[in-house]
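Bumping my old thread because nobody answered last time. Still need a sequence for this structure:
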């Protein structure tokens, strides 16, 4: 065991496992130096399973709380980690022609219900001497989305983060998503929410081009 995560075989279903002190742990309460406390996550997931009336000791669930859920949350919350922020290499450009990128996948978590919201992001910017590698836009959106947030704040975070990284004359970001907290619980309405954030001003013509590119994407 190198990562402090207990394996299935080490679980014997005894009560002392509830506080994370059973033999499966590394014994000194440490965990990966990563952004999440995997031990706490395992403990919390086990409590959650208990609370909903499940049996955390049954075969199908042991690895769920011990390993899978902690690992999944580590991945889904990468956006909190500055050291995971993508490197945004830029290139000199002589053109100030609008760069438009549509259909970037977005998967994030709503901070109200800890449920996913997902959809697409669209980005348009007018360069000021520099453009960024095309893949970096999608990399940035992916990183920025991996945290608990609300859509409006995420949209603004992406616009401001890309503005910092690229230094364009103007940039606009649009997100179009479905929130599972609305779709599979509560109001149970499968709807689309669109939000937009801008830094600087796109011209009327540029706004039209952005709108047309988004429409063509649908
Ligand atoms: N503006 C905005 N609202 C969000 C977002 N994600 C979830 N919400 C809403 O946040 C609200 C939270 O409302 P509350 O009344 O505190 O929570 P609730 O009782 O679970 O509400 P319902 O979802 O209506 O059952 C809900 O209306 C959600 O639809 C988001 O990204 N942006
Ligand atoms: Zn929600």
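Sorry it took so long. Here it is:
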């Amino acid at each position: 065991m190198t990562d402090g995560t207990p394996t299935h075989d080490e679980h014997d279903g005894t009560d002392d496992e509830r506080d994370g002190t059973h033999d499966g742990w590394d014994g000194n309460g440490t965990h990966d130096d990563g952004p999440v406390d995997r031990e706490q996550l395992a403990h919390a997931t086990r409590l959650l399973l208990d609370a909903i009336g499940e049996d955390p000791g049954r075969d199908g669930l042991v690895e769920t709380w011990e390993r899978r859920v902690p690992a999944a949350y580590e991945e889904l919350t990468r956006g909190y980690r500055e050291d995971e922020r993508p490197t945004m290499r830029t290139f000199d450009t002589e053109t100030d022609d609008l760069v438009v990128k549509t259909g970037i996948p977005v998967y994030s978590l709503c901070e109200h219900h800890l449920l996913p919201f997902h959809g697409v992001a669209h980005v348009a910017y007018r360069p000021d001497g520099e453009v960024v590698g095309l893949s970096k836009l999608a990399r940035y959106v992916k990183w920025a989305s991996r945290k608990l947030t609300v859509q409006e704040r995420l949209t603004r975070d992406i616009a401001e983060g890309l503005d910092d990284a690229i230094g364009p004359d103007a940039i606009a970001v649009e997100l179009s998503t479905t929130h599972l907290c609305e779709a599979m619980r509560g109001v149970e309405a499968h709807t689309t929410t669109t939000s937009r954030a801008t830094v600087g001003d796109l011209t009327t013509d540029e706004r039209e081009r952005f709108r047309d590119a988004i429409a063509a994407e649908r």
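Residues 110, 112-113, 115, 179, 181 surround zinc ion (ligand 2) (CB under 6 Å). Let me know if any region looks off to you.
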